[in-house]
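Hi F.,

I've been meaning to write this up properly since the lab meeting, where we talked about keeping a consistent format for the predictions we share between groups. The idea is simple: the sequence comes first, exactly as it goes in, then the structure tokens exactly as they come out, then a line or two of notes. No screenshots and no reformatting. I'm using this chain as the first example so we have something concrete to point to.
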Amino acid sequence: MTTLTEADALDGLRDALGLLKDREQVAERLLASSAKHSFAPDEELDWEAPLEEGKWFWPPELVSLYGTPLWKRMGEEQRILLSRHEAAALASLGIWFEIILMQLLVRHIYDKAATSAHVRYALTEIEDECRHSKMFARLIARGGTPWYPVSRTHQRLGRLFKTISTTPGSFTATLLGEEVLDWMQRLTFPDERVQPLIRGVTRIHVVEEARHVRYAREELRRQMVTAPRWSQEFTRVTSGEFARVFSEAFVNPAVYTDVGLDQREALAQVKASGHRREVMQTGAKRLTDFLDDIGVLRGVGRRLWRSSGLLA
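Output, unedited:
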């Protein structure tokens, strides 16, 4: 007679095999999509076309100071200049984040079968992220603005996070970096007020990031079922802290000085802006709903997410 313990073990084995089969099926579909819908930005975008006079570099509603008293005092030319520098700052943030993501993906597949579709897709995503980082770097150079690195504190925190992150924590951070920017870019690439080159860059990024989001979501859902309880709890706390760091890094104070604004006044108005808070929470809502559904937003982690301003 099979004991309850043996039956439970058999059920657990069947569940684990089912999750692995599902993981491979998802990866095979993503590999097929990558083969059909991948881009070569250096060849497919017109990098030499002149920038168009009077066009924005980011939709004005997504510029950090939009709707504030300071914004209302600024002329149209200075507002567009701010959008130019903030687009460069976001591209710089994207490069920082994608370099972290590539390292996390390499660590994730380090001890997994290289012949699996799951690992082959992770390598495909790393290839995508390399192209994205080069594309963002070229965009910054083409825009004639400085590169805007994150602060030294955030660089150190990023290095610490890469070292101590659990696997589910890594995929939570992946989604955090991808989904908020993805929401903004989905508003950007069809917006005819925006420079054509910016629209082209965001269109490529949105199409390819959709696969990355699917991969990360499916893996995180599996991880939050199979990971040990300590790992799940640690993920909740570290992801909440990373949400706080990421939301702070979303605004680079140097952009205000570079466009002739008082940095302290600008930061205070951004912090007090109800519109800006709504933009960030709306951009994160699809993600926070998902994380809530799979059990990431609990306890201390949920409080940290709220303090980040990304969760109402």
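Notes:
The two ends are 53 Å apart (CA to CA).
The domain at 21-30+52-308 is CATH 1.10.620.20 (Ribonucleotide Reductase, subunit A).

If this format works for you, I'll send the rest the same way.

G.
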